[in-house]
Amino acid sequence: MQDLLTGFRRIHLCHQPTPLEEMPRLTASLGGPRLWIKRDDCTGLATGGNKTRKLEFLMAAAHDAGADMIVTQGAVQSNHVRQTAAAAAKLGMKCHALLERRVPNTGAGYERTGNVLFDQMFGTTIEFRPPGLDMNAEAQAVTDRLRDEGNKPYFIPGGGSNEIGALGYVASAQEILHQINAMNIDLKLLVVATGSAGTQAGLVAGFHAHGCDIPIMGISVRQPHDIQVENVYRLAVKTAALLTDKPLGRDHVLVDDGYVGEGYGIPTDGTIAATNALASHEGILLDPVYSGKGMAGLIGRIGNGDISKDGDVIFLHTGGAVSLFAYEDQFGSSTAAE
Predict the structure, then answer these.
(1) 284 and 183 fall within a common domain
(2) Is there a catalytic annotation at residue 196?
(3) Residue 310, class by beta-carbon neighbours within 10 Å (0-12 exposed, 13-18 middle, 19+ buried)?
(4) What is the maximal distance between C-alpha atoms in the chain?
(5) Which of the four pLDDT bands, split at 50, 70 and 90, describes residue 333?
(6) How far apart are CA 78 and CA 86, in angstroms?
(7) 72 CB contacts (<8 Å, ≥6 apart)?
(8) Do residues 48 and 87 touch, judged by C-beta distance below 8 A?
(9) Which of 54, 68, 70, 287 suits a disulfide with 160, CB 3.0-4.6 Å?
(10) What is the DSSP string of 162-229?
(11) Which residues form the domain of 104?
(12) Cis peptide before 33 (omega within 30 of 0)
């Protein structure tokens, strides 16, 4: 299989290929299909996660631009900010982050523990913002201010989700295709949590460029169906255009918004149950914002018959378990009640 990424600059940050592991006990508990997990929580940088793949390309672009500082944004418990801060520290750059107070009614430690603690350990300077702003616009304005003050900042959008960052998930798509061929996996579906769109868009673009029509189901963690489909499709088209001349149809983008619950960063009962199920059946930790909702979607869709119990299904683990510490009350009380 041709490597589509040989012509693109990247900086090595990521343990890859990440493992593709079977989940036999979870499979048995659900009565099929045969479930696998792509361990992109094992990418290595700052406890790992999906953003590290994106940062290989984004940090290369920052280096080529002569930057000495990275500016980015995310929610308070952003996995992206944590990994970006670590990448900047590893490469001798400063990092400045804007954190949106997006999640309501958080506990006293929410802005001190989990990802925020790690951000600070990596030397990140932080500004908080109230909810509802255009955070990319806010961060771009801060980038301009820092440049005027004599720095050499490079702006990375939330989630690393532009066509440069999405190349990281073209790389993941290629790994998955290699692994399923080598392991004789009859893959029927790939399931992934979808938020800022870059992970799903890169997977869609990568499969498309390789002529693979295996469907990719994104379980939305924030946006309603139509908005998320548009966000993913727009970015997938831009990413695919870097790889192939073949047009990409909108029907390649599948989204289920039925597991968002009350909103971004607010775990549902299904999120908590799915996270505890994977921990108790497979010894794998999910996170309460992305992968927990994604797994709730996978389990829910199997239960209601939307996913057939024949063949093989891969769940892509995007990392982020460190943020569980910021949700200790919800997960701790759930465990105690059981």
Answers:
(1) yes
(2) no
(3) exposed
(4) 60
(5) low
(6) 13
(7) 80, 81, 84, 95, 96, 97, 98, 139, 155, 156, 157, 158, 160
(8) no
(9) 54
(10) SHHHHHHHHHHHHHHHHHHHHTT--EEEEEEEESSSHHHHHHHHHHHHTT----EEEEESSS-HHHHH
(11) 51-160
(12) yes
Per residue in 47-82, pLDDT tens?
Answer: 999 999 999 999 999 999 999 999 999 999 999 999
User: Do 161 and 170 contact (CB within 8 A), yes or no?
Assistant: no
The residue count for the chain: 338
Contact assessment for residue 122 and residue 285, using Cβ atoms and an 8 Å cutoff: no
Query: Cis link prior to 17 (omega < 30° from 0)?
Result: yes
If asked whether residues 155 and 169 sit together in one domain, one would say no
Does residue 9 sit within a domain?
no
Indicate the residue type of 137.
Answer: A
Q: Write the pLDDT tens digit of every residue in 313-324.
A: 999 999 999 999
Q: Within this chain, do residues 90 and 211 fall inside the same structural domain, yes or no?
A: no
Catalytic residue, chosen from 29, 78, 196, 333, is 78
- Token pair recorded at residue 136: 């990319």
Structure tokens at 69: 């500082």
Whether residue 25 is found in the same domain as residue 104: no
Residue 184 sits in the same domain as residue 253:
yes
Q: Using a cut of 0.85, tell me whether the model's pTM lies above it.
A: yes
Query: Which residues touch 216 (CB under 8 Å, ≥6 apart)?
Result: 189, 190, 191, 192, 200, 203, 204, 207, 252, 254
Domains held by the chain: number: 2
